[in-house]
């Protein structure tokens, strides 16, 4: 049975569609529906297979800063590829892995293998196409690498490298404030990812240069960098004695720590106008009453 409400609603609908309903007798025009807005297709997932250790064009010979296993890095412009040399291996090409270990979808490729070297890999910590300002570097990079028969332990070897600043291209007036990334290894036994004799570290570094006066000040912050059973934060360790001459492309120094052990850092500027820099470092420290040693590398860029 049709209710009064349903009958009234039906009559109202017919009144709208009919030519009148006690009105002017004119029909109501029905507007055509608006065309649907086209939906752009999702971009295809792209596996970045490029091998770029620094922004092109790379220098034939890259400066290297490391306290770990020695490594040399160069760019062969004729063949448009990077090569590395370490241990007893000759110069070998850095290549994109044949397997999709790190697809790097929507991002730059940061994981590589080394042609002809068993179990060799290189993992970048920065990239000139990185969307993260903290890891976007043009002339420098920091990486972890390892290979069969090469030391470095389960966490690999830390190395910083870059395009060296030419002599005479370092500012000789004004100041420069640099901030950057620190990576390292400490001889602190740990578990969580399997028992290891060492612990990976990361942190930040700040350097303040007075180019006119030839002085350097700064500090490095360090903390453990794994989901391990022993986690620690060493805080910020200030630079102690430093060596930097007006117009020099290199610098060095020590850390303000009372612990005994190897205590030093040494680095150099990278890129035109000394826009970035690389360095290696060694820091002794005390944790829970026990003396330890840490080593690593850093990269930094000028922010002023």
From TrEMBL:
Recorded coiled-coil stretches: none
Keyword ATP-binding listed: no
SUPFAM superfamilies with a match to the protein in the record: OMPA-like
InterPro entries for this protein: OMP/PagP_B-barrel
Signal in keyword set: yes
Keyword vocabulary terms for this entry: Signal
Signal sequence range: 1-29
Annotated protein name in UniProt: Transferrin-binding protein B C-lobe/N-lobe beta barrel domain-containing protein
Species in which this protein is naturally found: Novosphingobium kunmingense
């Amino acid at each position: 049975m049709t209710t009064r409400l349903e009958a009234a609603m039906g009559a109202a609908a017919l009144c709208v569609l009919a030519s009148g309903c006690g009105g002017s007798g004119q029909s109501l025009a029905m507007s055509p529906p608006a065309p649907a807005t086209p939906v752009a297709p999702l971009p295809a997932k792209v596996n970045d297979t490029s091998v770029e250790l620094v922004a092109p064009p790379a220098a034939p010979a890259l400066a290297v800063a490391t306290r770990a296993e020695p490594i040399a890095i160069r760019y062969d412009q004729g063949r448009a590829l990077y090569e590395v040399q370490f241990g007893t291996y000759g110069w070998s090409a850095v290549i994109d892995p044949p397997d999709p270990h790190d697809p790097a979808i929507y991002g730059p490729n940061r994981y590589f293998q080394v042609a002809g070297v068993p179990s060799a890999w290189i993992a970048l910590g920065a990239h000139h196409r990185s969307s993260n300002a903290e890891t976007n570097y043009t002339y420098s990079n920091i990486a972890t690498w390892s290979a069969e028969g090469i030391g470095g332990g389960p966490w690999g070897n830390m190395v910083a490298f870059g395009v060296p600043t030419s002599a005479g291209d370092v500012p000789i007036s004004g100041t420069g404030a640099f901030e950057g990334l620190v990576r390292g290894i400490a001889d602190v036994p740990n578990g969580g990812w399997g028992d290891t004799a060492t612990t990976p570290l990361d942190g930040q570094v700040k350097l303040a240069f007075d180019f006119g006066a030839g002085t350097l000040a700064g500090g490095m912050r360090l903390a453990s960098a794994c989901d391990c059973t022993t986690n620690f934060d060493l805080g910020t360790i200030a630079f102690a004695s430093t060596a930097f001459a007006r117009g020099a492309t290199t610098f060095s120094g020590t850390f303000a720590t009372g612990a005994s052990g190897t205590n030093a850092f040494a680095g150099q500027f990278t890129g035109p106008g000394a826009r970035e820099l690389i360095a290696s470092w060694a820091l002794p420290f005390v944790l829970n009453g026990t003396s330890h040693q840490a080593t690593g590398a850093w990269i930094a860029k000028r922010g002023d």
